């Protein structure tokens, strides 16, 4: 199991010690409070990411990511799994009014916890089946899956709510969709 936060801190720290303090390196690395990965991450256990107590952004969008089980705390959150990889999300804790995007190349399964983006947008994308076992709240909420969406908890969108299956044959199974 890799400790992503430690790895990112060490990369930043080594770059700082090496005098690589040029603006392009700082811009590419962002800030040590930002969890950012440039190459694919393959984790066989649980991936826990905490962008310095949730004050930094989390951006893990490299093709080939396989994070397996994910707990993430950050300001704005953008996490994407590689093609064919399933993602079980155990926890998402984003900053106040910050966008969240979670995308899995295969199944995306959200466990029982609240994702509330406030006035920001929430986007969930699955390459197969999307299962929402938690409450969702935000401005515009978009749920997209190839072969079906199961919604098992309340959803509150202050803007628009979209739920789309792209195969045309997948079920949209909704047990509860209501304001909070």
Short note summarizing the structure:
With 180 residues, the protein is mainly β. It has helices spanning 4-17, 23-29; strands spanning 35-36, 46-50, 58-60, 69-73, 77-83, 87-93, 100-105, 108-110, 115-116, 122-126, 129-132, 136-138, 141-145, 148-151, 155-157, 161-165, 172-174.
Percentage of helical residues?
Answer: 10-25%
Q: β content, as a range?
A: 35-45%
Low-confidence stretches: 13-36, 174-180
Run of helices and strands: HHEEEEEEEEEEEEEEEEE
Radius of gyration, in angstroms, nearest whole number: 17 Å
Mean pLDDT across residues: 77
| Count of strand segments | 17
Arrangement of strands in the largest sheet: 1-3-5-7-10-13-16
Report the major sheet.
Answer: 7 strands, parallel
Shape, per Cα inertia axes: globular
Distance between the termini: 37 Å
What is the SS-derived class? Answer: mainly beta
Q: What is the count of helical runs? A: 2
């Amino acid at each position: 199991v890799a400790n992503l936060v430690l790895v990112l801190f060490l990369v930043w720290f080594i770059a700082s010690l090496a005098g690589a303090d040029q603006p392009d390196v700082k811009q590419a690395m962002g800030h040590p409070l930002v969890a950012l990965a440039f190459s694919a991450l393959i984790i066989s256990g649980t991936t826990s990411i905490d962008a310095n107590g949730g004050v930094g952004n989390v951006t893990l969008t490299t093709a080939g990511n396989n994070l397996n089980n994910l707990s993430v705390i950050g300001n704005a959150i953008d996490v994407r799994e590689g093609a064919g990889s399933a993602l079980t999300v155990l926890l998402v804790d984003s900053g106040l009014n910050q966008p969240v995007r979670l995308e899995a190349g295969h199944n995306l399964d959200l466990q029982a916890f609240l994702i509330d983006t406030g006035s920001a947008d929430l986007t969930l994308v699955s390459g197969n089946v999307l299962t929402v076992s938690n409450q969702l709240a935000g401005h515009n909420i978009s749920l997209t899956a190839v072969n079906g969406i199961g919604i098992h908890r309340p959803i509150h969108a202050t803007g628009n709510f979209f739920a789309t299956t792209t195969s045309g044959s997948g079920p949209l199974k909704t047990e509860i969709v209501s304001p909070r």
